[in-house]
Amino acid sequence: METGISRRNFLIAGGMTALSATRVLGANKTLRLGVIGAGGRMRGLLDAAERTGVPFEIAAVCDVYAPRCEEVKQRSRAADATIHHDYHSLLDDHTIDAVIVATPDHWHVRIAEAALASGKDVYLEKPVTHTLEEGAVLLKAVRSCKQILQCGTQQRSWSHFRNAVSLIQGGALGRVTQVRTYWWQNYDVSWVPKPVDVAQLDWKQWLGGAKEQPFDLEKFSRWRWFWDFGGGAMTDLFSHWIDVVHWAMKANEPSMATMLGDKYVFKQWDCPDTIQAAFRYPGFDVVYEGMMSSSIDDGGLEFRGTEATLKLKRSGMSLWRESVKSNENPVLKEDSFIDGTVTHMRNFFDCIVSRQEPNAPVEAGVAAANAGHIGNLAYRKGGLTTWPVKGSAK
């Protein structure tokens, strides 16, 4: 059956997508950035920023753990780079154009809201919210000002993800009724906590609005897995994939969620380490599975349609046609040779100058986070929830 998309046209389309993502910021403008949250993810974001080729300098860094501030300051090109332990003082610097926020989740909205109010553009790591209620707060903060906010769902700027979405929306798969998502990681070999000099850590400031509790290295290092600070796999890993689903399928809210979650290995966590979840959307279903003590197969998505299946990972994608001989499949294939965080950061820098909408607008970020929150709500309600919950507001 003719798909309407040849290999040659597909490759040309991919090249155009990649080309359109490489617009360069004005050469005469050096952006002054503020860094808030200077841990491992921030190091990756700054690495990506440097790879964009866009001229910028780190004007200020804020973190409650002093050694991290020093690490980031050392990579700054700005002779006047300053160190802060309270983000409010960083935001008072009117020479800063934009901030990158990569704190634990429970700080995201309050910092983003303050940064926008101070007149700064914001790159906000995902999930953009820590609770369902915070979604409305963040939406209002962004849409009531003229600032740019880019959500940290980098697939939106990754060329082969953009090509995949074009294929799906163009009908190449036929009718899609199921999307399978998965992500496996092994916390026994990755993200192992490193020693912390508590004397150089402002633990009370790190806790923020969370309940008072003594310092705990596991919570400080693996905060995503404790309800006070994160939301486990559903708001960490799943939020990336469900954002792609929302984007491709033009739907952004499930009507029902089921979730089977267990703590089999990491019993000290609040959040489950082993998950099977399912979500009902208008006309299609989404499933997610993952565990945190096995990394074989990593993460990905499969869009299952009546005419074809599209398999999608960060390393590339492939299209598998129904009724085609096995030696002829996949009929299309694209590999990725660059981290999409680079093109996503470039898009953010681009929008700072153009004032255009970024590739990952706030509505998309809130919807992706909400899906994870709804999954967690189902887990905490015994495994099932409809949405919106009867008798309550969203």
Task: Write a structural description.
It is a single chain. Helices cover 34% and strands 21% of the residues. The protein has helices at 7-20, 40-51, 66-74, 87-91, 108-117, 134-143, 159-169, 203-207, 217-221, 232-249, 340-354, 362-380, and strands spanning 31-36, 56-62, 82-84, 98-101, 121-124, 149-151, 176-183, 256-262, 274-281, 284-291, 299-305, 308-313, 316-321, 332-335, 384-386. The strands form two sheets. The protein has a nine-stranded mixed beta sheet with strand order 14-13-12-11-7-10-9-8-15. Strand 5 (121-124), helix 6 (134-143) and strand 6 form a beta-alpha-beta unit. The longest helix has 19 residues, at 362-380.
Short summary:
With 394 residues, the protein is an alpha/beta fold. Helix content is 34%, strand content 21%. It has helices at 7-20, 40-51, 66-74, 87-91, 108-117, 134-143, 159-169, 203-207, 217-221, 232-249, 340-354, 362-380; strands spanning 31-36, 56-62, 82-84, 98-101, 121-124, 149-151, 176-183, 256-262, 274-281, 284-291, 299-305, 308-313, 316-321, 332-335, 384-386.
Distance between the termini: 44 Å
Helix content, binned percent = 25-40%
Query: Order of strands across the biggest sheet?
Result: 14-13-12-11-7-10-9-8-15
**Count of extended strands:** 15
* SSE string: HEHEHEHEHEHEHEHHHEEEEEEEHHE
Rg for CA atoms: 21 Å
Low-confidence runs of at least 5 consecutive residues: 1-27
Q: Count up the helices.
A: 12
Largest sheet: 9 strands, mixed
- Overall mean pLDDT: 92
Itemize the secondary structure elements and their pairings.
Elements: H1 7-20, E1 31-36, H2 40-51, E2 56-62, H3 66-74, E3 82-84, H4 87-91, E4 98-101, H5 108-117, E5 121-124, H6 134-143, E6 149-151, H7 159-169, E7 176-183, H8 203-207, H9 217-221, H10 232-249, E8 256-262, E9 274-281, E10 284-291, E11 299-305, E12 308-313, E13 316-321, E14 332-335, H11 340-354, H12 362-380, E15 384-386
Parallel strand pairs: 1-2, 1-4, 2-3, 4-5, 5-6, 7-10
Antiparallel strand pairs: 7-11, 8-9, 8-15, 9-10, 11-12, 12-13, 13-14
Helix pairs in contact: 1-7, 2-11, 5-6, 6-12, 7-10, 10-12
